[in-house]
Design a protein that fits this description.
This protein is mostly helical. It is built from 7 helices and 3 strands; from the N terminus they run ααβαββαααα.
């Protein structure tokens, strides 16, 4: 672990501890969570730039995520969004999900995934349908709520990725784009090497009532992953299985 790794990891752990503490207010927790996410996204780019500056490419590896239990389909959708935002490839291999990417980036995905699942569960426990549905209708409402929540988080991830790349370019110069393009090519090549028979899977579709999706999108917007400020100034940017 480099000094940069240790410094940024300590900041992230502190921010997440504050965000997840039961006595932290909802708005304050969102700010702490936003800061942690911003640090991780920026740090993964910093790691790639450091590797390139040292004359060696970042290692591309394959990591397995197993998702089972309640609301698994929604959590899979969340993992896909995180993989895409973090420049990884994701492959479904008989019910296990393999992410191919740079080691430090996969660490970022794992940490984000754990954090956002916690936030998702917290929001769902507090959410109530406006029409007081029960039974199977309530189950459907909750599923649609979560899909709406994840859809909003996905949009924020797309926006945040652009901001992180802009911040990295401002710090490291225009070479950031070239490094990320090269990294994307190597991730693609590694994916083809590992999964030569990879074909296009079916697009995931959701069924049932769409009640709850709007509420989920609204609450997903509160899981801010990068646009907040701390102390009135810009976030200081920097990056487990």
């Amino acid at each position: 672990m480099t000094a940069l790794d240790a410094s940024v990891t300590a900041k992230i752990e502190k921010l997440l501890a504050q965000a997840n503490h039961p006595n932290t207010g909802a708005a304050e927790a969102a700010v702490f969570a936003a800061a942690a996410e911003r640090l991780m996204l920026k740090h993964s780019i910093d790691e790639s730039m450091l590797a390139a500056a040292g004359g060696h490419a970042s290692d591309i590896v394959d990591r397995v995520f197993t998702i089972t239990g309640q609301y698994a389909s929604t959590r899979i959708t969340l993992l896909v969004a995180l993989a895409t935002a973090n420049r990884c490839k994701i492959i479904n291999v008989q019910g296990t999900y393999h992410l191919v990417g740079v080691t430090s980036t996969l660490d970022t995905v794992a940490t984000m995934f754990a954090s956002l699942q916690t936030q998702m569960g917290n929001h769902l426990r507090k959410a109530t349908p406006s029409n007081n549905v029960r039974g199977a209708a309530l189950v459907s409402w909750r599923k649609q709520y979560l899909f709406g929540w994840v859809a909003q988080v996905n949009q924020r991830l797309i926006e945040q990725r652009k901001l992180a790349e802009q911040d990295a370019t401002a710090e490291h110069g225009p070479g950031v784009g070239l490094v990320l393009v090269d990294e994307a090519k190597r991730v693609q090549a590694k994916t083809v090497e590992l999964y030569p028979r990879l074909g296009k899977g079916r697009k995931r579709t959701s069924r049932g009532s769409f009640g709850g999706r709007a509420e989920g999108q609204r609450d997903g917007a509160r899981a801010d992953i990068g646009n907040k400020r701390i102390g009135g100034g810009p976030l200081a940017l920097g990056g487990g299985r």
